[in-house]
Design brief:
Largest sheet: 7 strands, mixed
Shape: globular
Radius of gyration: 21 Å
Strand content: 25-35%
Structural class: alpha/beta
Order of helices and strands: HEEEHEHEHEEHEEEHEEHHHEEHEEEH
Distance between the termini: 60 Å
Helix content: 25-40%
Number of helices: 11
Length: about 350
């Protein structure tokens, strides 16, 4: 009996995440000469705190924070947060991994592969992530996909973002073609492309009975990865960024034997990465907005849920608990500012 119990405990996998704390760009210079991007303040809170809190609430139990520079500052911040009993420190272990020789995102993944720290599927994040995504159901879905498709390497987490939406960055506009079961066939970052036309390979239409074409998505810079992602980076030194990895696998899918899938987050779930100053302002606005809602909703028997509909259109639903939860919609299909005004009027 005890042997079976020990075996079941040993088989329990710890949910792991990897945060690449280096930006490898110059968008935030000269500020990042002295302060790393992960410690850049957003509403007086370092971005790293948002990322770790998000992972902890998302169900992650162990996180590897990969650093190449400003290691002392980052370690001091982590230790200080643990001493202050930060929320994430109560449920999640954080390990700082140092490698000062890495010069790209791909180098970090290859170094991580050499250290053999990852034991199963893991969540991969780029620096400056802010979100409230429920990760465990997506990880479970990725596991189910791997059972049906042994070559499934990565699941990209994307969010709807129509033209003109505050959270949509022109430098990161995505064009994606996928099958009805969410297998990615084509993934292009239009903001970095110099081509005036979009080229859609004919074989995509010839080899698939039906495909979906998306241009209303934004990358959250969060993905669920199978362990073979590490070895794929190690075997292909031309993979310097995550975009290189995705593009390389889609072009050489038959040779590498690996596939990419995607997952759409909906409702009041949110995910974004501070990749440039425009996204910094967008994320700052979003966090400020939800903080104001938390300040307005003071009574314990009231809950407010903000749901994004599309392109600057939002809905706030109020739930009142008086024996059971009753729902009231204060406004729908309106801007954030008007939505906030309606909520304030309703509560007062």
């Amino acid at each position: 009996m005890s042997q079976k119990l020990d075996k079941s405990v040993a088989q329990k996998e710890v949910v792991q995440a990897v945060v690449i704390a280096e930006h490898f760009g110059n968008e935030f210079m000269p500020i990042t000469d002295d302060t790393p991007l992960t410690l850049l303040p957003l509403l007086n809170v370092p971005l790293l705190e948002y990322t770790l809190e998000f992972l902890s609430l998302g169900g992650i139990e162990e996180t590897f924070l990969f650093c190449c520079s400003n290691v002392v500052m980052i370690k001091q911040h982590i230790n200080s947060s643990i001493e202050k009993s930060a929320g994430w420190s109560l449920t999640m272990k954080v390990h700082v991994i140092v490698s000062e020789t890495c010069r790209s995102f791909g180098d970090c993944i290859r170094d991580l592969d050499a250290k053999a720290l990852i034991r199963g599927d893991f969540v991969l994040l780029e620096p400056g992530i802010v979100g409230n995504i429920k990760l465990l159901p997506i990880i479970k879905k990725h596991n189910e996909t791997c059972n049906t498709d042994k070559g499934a390497a990565m699941t990209l987490i994307l969010q709807e973002a129509g033209l003109g939406q505050r959270g949509r960055c022109s430098f990161e506009e995505v064009l994606m073609v996928a099958t009805p079961n969410n297998r990615v066939l084509l993934h292009q970052k239009l903001g970095t492309s110099k081509k005036a036309k979009i080229e859609l390979p004919l074989e995509i239409l010839m080899d698939n009975a039906s495909v979906n074409i998306y241009h209303n998505l934004k990358d959250t810079h969060i993905s669920i990865c199978s362990p073979n992602v590490l070895s794929l980076f190690s075997d292909n030194f031309d993979f310097q960024t995550k975009d290189d990895f995705v593009r390389g696998l889609l072009i050489n899918e038959e040779i590498l034997g690996s596939t990419i899938y995607w997952h759409l987050i909906k409702g009041n779930q949110y995910g974004a990465a501070v990749t440039n100053w425009r996204m910094y302002q967008s994320v700052r606005y979003s966090v400020s907005f939800f903080n104001k809602i938390d300040q307005f909703v003071k009574l314990s028997n009231i809950m407010a849920i903000v749901s994004e509909i599309d392109n600057f259109q939002y809905k706030i639903s109020i739930y009142i608990h008086s024996g059971c939860w009753s729902s009231y919609t204060t406004c729908s299909k309106c801007s954030w500012d008007y939505c906030l005004l309606q909520l304030w009027s309703w509560l007062h």
